[in-house]
Every structure is written in structure tokens, then in C-alpha cells.
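Incident log, structure service

09:12 report received: a user says their structure output differs between two submissions of the same chain.
09:20 pulled the input from the user's history:
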Amino acid sequence: MRGRGIGEEIVREATGHEVDLIVMGSAPKWRRQSRFFSPTVDYVLRKAPSEVMVIAYPQGVLEEALS
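09:34 re-ran on a clean worker, output below:
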């Protein structure tokens, strides 16, 4: 799907399909900064028409999966 922002598109699709739950991942890099979640996750948490579950991956897990 194309949209102005990833978060906007996720919310639009969730609204159009009347979903009950949106599951998102959160990379550790955001938790080392001043924000705990990325701007995309923040947007979806604020605007979602349903429940949102955020999986916060531990440091190194994503890097190990790619190697």
C-alpha cells in the first residue's frame, strides 16, 4: 500500500478491515534515544481503531536473525 506515512497507512488499513488487534515490533535503537518507540509506532498507538500490541525486541535479537 502507498500512503504518506507508514503509520497512517497501517491505521487506514486497520480501519478499512475492522481489525481487532494490530501487532507491531519495536527495535532497540529507539529505546536508546529519547523516545521509547519509533514515530510509526507512536502514531499507530495514538490513532489506531483497535488494540495495539508492541513487541519490544531485546538488544541483539534482530541482528542475530539476519546473520
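09:41 both user submissions now match this output. Likely a transient worker issue. Closing.
09:42 reviewer note: Helices lie at 6-16, 28-31, 39-47, 61-66. The radius of gyration is 13 Å.
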